[in-house]
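MOLECULE: protein
FOLLOWS: sequence and fold
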Amino acid sequence: MAEKRDGDGNGDSAAKPSVLFLHPDLGVGGAERLVLDAALALQARGCSVRIWTAHYDPGHCFSESRRVPVRCAGDWLPRGLGGGGRGAALCAYVRMVFLALYVLFLGDEEFDVVVCDQVSACIPVFKLARRRKKILFYCHFPDLLLTRRDSFLKRLYRAPIDWVEEYTTGMADCILVNSQFTAAIFKQTFKSLSHIDPDVLYPSLNVTSFDSAVPDKLDDLVPEGKKFLLLSINRYERKKNLALALEALVELRGRLTSQDWDRVHLIMAGGYDERVLENVEHYEELKTVVQRSGLGQYVTFLRSFSDRQKISLLHGCTCVLYTPSNEHFGIVPLEAMYMQCPVIAVNSGGPLESVVHSVTGFLCEPDPTHFSEAIEKFIRDPSLKATMGRAGRARVKEKFSSEAFTEQLYQYVTKLLV
C-alpha cells in the first residue's frame, strides 16, 4: 500500500520539469542526505518533486524529509535471506525493481525525469514507459566493490548481480558521481562503460539548519571538567573503521600528562538501525574495545542522534575524527568544517578533495599513531582549532555551497529534456 504526504513546491511547476526520485531506504546515511538535498534543491527551483522509497520512517530520517512528498511501496519485501544479512544485494534489487514497477503502473504519477541512486537495476523498468522517461543515475560508488567474495558460492551469487549493475548503469541517460575519486573508480570497475565519462557533482551542505540552530549545552553527554572534546560521526559499520578512533585515544593517553589526559573525551556518534544486524553487532564490539582498553570514563556512545544534537556536538568539539578509508565522498567533513571544526581524516578517497591538509585539518595514514599525533597538536596549541575552523568554513562556502549544487543539478536535469 502506498503512503502519501503532501509537500509544497515553489515556482511554476507547469513550466518546470517534473522529477521523481527513487531510493531504496530513506534513512540517515550520506546517500539519503544527498537525495534529500537534491530533491529540495529542485523543488526550490520550481520543479515538481516526489520521492518514492521502499522504506520511510519519519522518526529515523532527516527532519527536512517532511518538506518533500514521500511515498512508499514494497516494504513488505524482505531485506535479506536468513540471518547475517545474507542476500541483501539481491533483495535490494528485487525491492527497487518492484518499487519502479509500482510507480510506473500503479503509482498514478506524471513525471519527466527519474533520479535514482545506489541500485541501477530499476532503470530498465522505466524504459517500459509509454512516454519515454529520462533517467539520471547518481553513482555513490560501484556496489560490486562494497562486498567481499571469500567463497566460491559468494562469487557465484555475485556474478549475475555484478553484471546487472554494470549493464543497467550504462542504460542511464546521464551518470553523475560524487567525487573525482569515485569517477576514477567507476572507469576502472565498469570496463564495458569505458566510453562513458561520468560528471562529478559534489554533494553540498544544506546550511540552513546549521545557521538557524541554537546549540544546546552538552552537560548530559560530556562529563564535567572535559576541555578537549573529540567527535566521531559515522554509521556503526565495520567498514567505517570506528575502532581507529578508540585505538588513537589509547595511543594519545601515552602522549599526554595525566592532567591533560583527564580533560580529553571522545563521543562516538553514529547512525544506528536495530533492523540492521551489523549495526547492533558492531556497537557491542566497540563497547567491548572500550572496556578492555580502560576507556570507560573517556568515551560516550550516542546512537541515532538528532540534527540538533549533531550541531551542538560540532559546535562544542575540538576536532572531528573521520576514520573510513577510501570513503567515496563523506558529508561529515563538510558539516564539521562549516561549523568551524577541524577534521582529522584518512588520506584517501573523498576527504582528499574536501579537507586541505594543515589548513582545514589533517590528512593521516589510517593508523593510531598518526591520528593521535594529529589530535595532540590541538591539545598543545588550542588556538589551532580557531585558525583551521575559519579556513574550513571558508572552503565549504567556496567549493560546496548549496547554490552551486542546486544550479548544477538543475542544469543536468533540464539538459535531459532538450
In short: Confidence is low (pLDDT under 50) at residues 1-14.
